[in-house]
Amino acid sequence: MALLPLVLAIGLHSPFAFAEEDSASQLATINKIIRGEGKPGETATAKNGEVVYTVLEGGIVEIRNLRYNTVQRFGTIKSNDNNRSK
What we know:
The chain has 86 residues and is α+β, with helices and mostly antiparallel strands.
């Protein structure tokens, strides 16, 4: 069940959700955040301004939907991170 929010979050950032001039950079930033490669404080916002992706301290990713006033948080597991699998 922990993967469901991640799958839903990935589905929220389709290329059509961003402004055309910023679509490549916004999509790249959101993908970087979701993969656990972002730095604390890094954010990206969907074109409509309703969904904000933020990296919190400790690598926690927060997805805030301003329209529906919902927040999802999840930790990411970086590839080859053997400490998390123990």
